[in-house]
């Protein structure tokens, strides 16, 4: 078989068409995936930088979910403390009424109601649990919430407390001596005031912790958005620019095809002269 000989003009046009076709294929790939860097082959530096950013964003997303759970744990304690304060206020109202009541029978009835409320107070404390964590019925334990994916030292430690009625204000679990005498409610009132102070202090402490967690959650979410945005800038394609580039390449391809055809026709015309 005879070798096919191409003129320099034809060869040049064919090479130009091949380069244009390759560019069209690349642009089509970018438009179909929305990315200008799909693998390390396209741009190793950008590809691995983007991967590192995306990996950290993923790790922080887990941290953010943990913070959300932590907020729920602490908010459960705060809401429970608010309910406890309402119950203790009712207990105080009963003690105040008993203090001014002359009838020991009535005081005893009020004392029974007081004791019932104390039981309800304990129910609230024991029910103040979220996902297995209760910050109100045990002292000496610490709920740890880690804020960083890089080290566990960047965290918030929330100490638990024991706020059952027997531990509050010297003990408000029972009416003193069933309020047998008019002086007995005074002891209960003193303990109740101390209990209210303690409950409010703990509510403020847990509320402060919850507010800090919210701040860290917002910060973490902003970090995730920044990292994901940075990764996208490294690998994502500009669809508008790529679309315009595709149109230009298609036009170049058409012109290249025409140029190749003209070159071939010119060569054939020359050959006819011989």
UniProtKB/TrEMBL annotation:
Where in the cell is the protein located? Secreted; Bacterial flagellum
Q: Could you name the Gene Ontology cellular component terms for this entry?
A: bacterial-type flagellum; extracellular region
Q: Where's the Flagellin C-terminal domain?
A: 189-274
Primary localization: secreted
In terms of SUPFAM superfamilies, this protein maps to: Phase 1 flagellin
Has UniProt tagged this entry with the keyword Secreted?
yes
Which keywords does the record carry?
Bacterial flagellum, Cell projection, Cilium, Flagellum, Secreted
What transmembrane ranges does the database entry give?
none
Xref: InterPro entries: Flagellin, Flagellin_C, Flagellin_N
Q: Which residues form the Flagellin N-terminal domain?
A: 11-138
**GO MF:** structural molecule activity
Assigned protein family: Belongs to the bacterial flagellin family.
The role this protein plays is: Flagellin is the subunit protein which polymerizes to form the filaments of bacterial flagella.
This protein's name: Flagellin
Species annotation = Roseospira goensis
